[in-house]
Amino acid sequence: MGFRFVQTANPVEGFRFVRKASLVGKFHLARKVHPAGVFRFVREASSVEEIRFVQKANPVEGFRFVRKASLVGKFHLARKVHPAGGFRFVQKANPVEGFRFVRMASLVEGFHFVRKASPVEDFRSVQKVRLVGDCHFATKVRPVESFHAVRKVAERLVRMVHACAL
């Protein structure tokens, strides 16, 4: 009845990503950044109506993130952070063209996150995940290498899904 997906990045980055999905489309995500738990990320989704996405950083980072998705799949996201955090986050989607997701972290965090970027923008995706639809994302990119993907974990995720289904 679902699966858990754990992704661990470079120990220096200390990044963990846990996803739990059920057959009815509800899922939760939690992410913690080392050291000192810089931020946490929680998302709950309904397979019928809307998606709500709330992200809170610790008081030093000082940001909040909320996403709502309509039944037809259109949604917009915006995140504001404390200037010291150096994050930018833009996402747009529609049911025909899919979605774009670009996250640029500061040099301290040292990673980029790209979801199904426009071919014109020349981003790279390395992972395909089947949930309620197709999800493409690339993570753990060193800033000096821009959007060059460094990890492929789709096969590992498939094995984990099968293992949890048993």
Show the helix and strand layout.
Blueprint lengths: L2 E6 L6 E7 L5 E7 L5 E7 L5 E7 L6 E5 L6 E4 L9 E7 L3 E7 L7 E4 L11 E4 L3 E4 L16 H12 L1
Antiparallel strand pairs: 1-2, 2-3, 4-5, 5-6, 7-8, 8-9, 9-10, 11-12
Describe this structure in words.
The chain has 166 residues and is mainly beta. It has one domain (3-165). Helix content is 7%, strand content 42%. The chain has one helix and twelve strands, in the order E-E-E-E-E-E-E-E-E-E-E-E-H. The chain has one helix at residues 154-165, and strands at 3-8, 15-21, 27-33, 39-45, 51-57, 64-68, 75-78, 88-94, 98-104, 112-115, 127-130, 134-137. It has a four-stranded antiparallel sheet with strand order 7-8-9-10, with no helix packed on it. Strands 1-2-3 form a three-stranded antiparallel sheet. Strand 8 and strand 9 (98-104) form a beta hairpin. The chain is globular and about 40 Å long. Mean pLDDT is 34; it is low at 1-156.
